[in-house]
Design goal:
alpha+beta, Heat Shock Protein 90, two-stranded antiparallel sheet, 11 helices, disordered C terminus
């Protein structure tokens, strides 16, 4: 029932809209024809005036040529070209005007005005006239002394104004006059067409609006009550009241919808608990799986980043010693045989380069293993003061060559021993790296002080120098591989910038931490904090 009423209402509205669209289309075509005719009339008038003006200028040029005045051939050719262009445009406009009138005649049953055909015929005469004028002007020469000007000028006027025995001047002037009369008529027709189209459009729009309003009021009155019931039911379902039912008091489409709605609500009520339980199980499974995937993704990213960084480090650090070794070998093999001492010196330098290359490879592998959590530690009980004594003695030997003193400052005679669970060789390597940096970047006659202090179950080793220091903006980068600060590069040209990376890896492998503080031109302090042996605390 309601479906039929809605279909009839929409059919009426669609029919009114189609009628309105048809009237608008028909009226817009008429207005467009009138506007096109008006534009064509204006363009034809402009071209006729331009053609007449160009012909008049050619007459002036011809009179100057006959009298022997300064008549330039370029002026003549330019005027002929302008006449030719005006003639072509005029011919196209006349044909378009004729075609437009033919379409309007077929659509509206009107007749074609005679001046339209006359204009087309006149444009055909212009071809012969322009050709005759061109030929005559090209052969025109100045009059000889005593020649009669009037007869020659009359003959030129015949060429200018006659074509196939007809007076073109009269035809052109008549066409100009007709076009001037046509233009107001065309404009008036265009404005009248626009007014009629506006009135028709407004009338049909008002009719369509009135029909739409009436149909809307009718349908609203008939549909409001059943739609309100359905909306109440959907709102109840939205709020979770699955026991809500819609009253069945009709047998139309809305009654059937209400029956289906009640059945759907009952089905939802039966399965709601099952759906909630299934959703909870699914959420738990998704959360667990997402956590696993996130952890796996992070692990893969770390592995890939370490692989790419290791390849970049290897290519960066191995290129220089490998190039030096190859250069020494090529120099030794180039040219004639050399004395045995020179070969021995070359081999000695090659061995030195190989040692340097091997050291760089060992350092890089150590850092790579540390990043991959594969750095093997041979743990044993280590006496920290004894280990610091060994490292300080090794650093003192290096400091003697640089005139730098290395002092170990023990806490005191009654201080308790400190035992660590560590790899003695690796930890000694980290301490020597820190001491080596302190010695290399200290000032002449400077002092490097090494001290340690236990705090509960942890011990802190402190290395302080009086060197060049590190700028504040470079402190966060000191543990990055192959990074050397500005002051370090100015103080010493050698160095790879990987030492502190190795020390950091070793200390972290012992569950420790390493920090650096520095004041430019005053010195740098390195603090290494390590856990004591399990079960051992300071003072025990």
């Amino acid at each position: 029932m309601f479906r039929l009423r809605l279909s009839l209402a929409f059919a009426v509205l669609v029919a009114l809209v189609c009628i309105q669209a048809g009237f608008v289309y028909w009226g817009s075509n008429r207005v467009n024809d009138y506007a096109t005719h008006s534009r064509l009339a204006s363009d034809i008038l402009s071209e006729l005036l331009e053609l007449s003006a160009s012909k008049q200028r050619l007459r002036v040029w011809a009179s100057q040529q006959l009298m022997g005045a300064d008549a330039s051939p370029e002026v003549r050719d330019g005027l002929l070209a302008r006449m030719q262009s005006s003639k072509e445009r005029l011919k196209q406009l006349a044909r378009r005007d004729l075609s437009l009138w033919e379409e309007m005649t077929v659509r509206e049953g009107t007749s074609i005005p005679p001046e339209v055909g006359q204009l087309v015929a006149m444009t055909e005469l212009l071809d012969d006239n322009l050709a005759a004028v061109r030929t005559r002007l090209l052969s025109l020469a100045p009059l000889e002394r005593g020649a009669e000007f009037a007869s020659v000028w009359e003959e030129l006027n015949e060429v200018f104004d006659k074509a196939r025995g007809r007076d073109l001047r009269e035809l052109i002037n008549g066409a100009i006059e007709r076009q001037r009369n046509v233009m107001p008529v065309a404009r008036a027709a265009t404005e009248g067409g626009l007014d009629r189209l506006r009135q028709q459009t407004i009338g049909l729009a008002a009719l369509t609006l009135a029909a739409g309003v009436l149909l809307a009021l009718y349908l609203n009155r008939r549909l409001k009550r059943p739609l309100d019931r359905l909306l109440e039911g959907t709102e109840a379902l939205r709020t979770g009241a699955l026991d809500h039912r819609i009253a069945l008091d009709t047998h139309d489409e809305f009654g059937r919808v209400a029956g289906h709605f009640n059945a759907m609500a009952a089905e939802l009520q039966r399965h709601r608990l099952d759906a909630d339980a299934a959703r909870r199980r699914l959420e738990d499974a998704v959360f667990e799986r997402t956590s696993e995937l996130r952890a796996a993704h992070q692990t893969l990213q770390q592995i890939d980043q370490r692989r790419r960084q290791l390849l970049a480090d290897l290519s960066h650090e191995l290129r220089t010693p490998a190039t030096a070794i190859r250069g020494e070998a090529e120099i030794a093999l180039r040219g004639a045989d050399k004395p045995l001492p020179e070969y021995r010196e070359t081999l000695t330098r090659i061995v030195g380069g190989v040692k340097q290359l091997t050291g760089v490879i060992d350092d890089l592998l150590l850092v790579a293993k540390a990043e991959a959590d594969q750095l093997a530690m041979r743990l044993d009980t280590v006496d920290l003061p004894e280990l610091l004594g060994d490292a300080t003695e090794m650093a003192g030997t290096l400091g003697a060559r640089h005139n730098v003193r290395v002092q170990l400052e023990a806490p005191g005679a009654g201080a308790p021993p400190v035992l660590l669970r560590a790899d003695a060789d690796r930890l000694r390597q980290a301490l020597v790296i820190v001491l080596d940096n302190a010695v290399r970047y200290s000032r002449h006659d400077g002092t490097v002080r090494v001290s340690w202090q236990a705090h509960g179950d942890r011990v802190q080793v402190r290395v302080a120098d009086e060197g060049i220091g590190i700028d504040a903006d470079e402190l966060p980068k000191v543990f990055e591989r192959f990074v050397r600060g500005r002051r370090a590069r100015l103080h010493r040209a050698d160095g790879t910038g990987i030492g502190l990376s190795i020390a950091l890896a070793i200390v972290q492998a012992h569950d420790g931490r390493i920090d650096i503080d520095s004041i430019p031109l005053q010195g740098t302090t390195v603090r290494i904090e390590l856990p004591c042996h399990q079960g051992f605390t300071a003072g025990a």
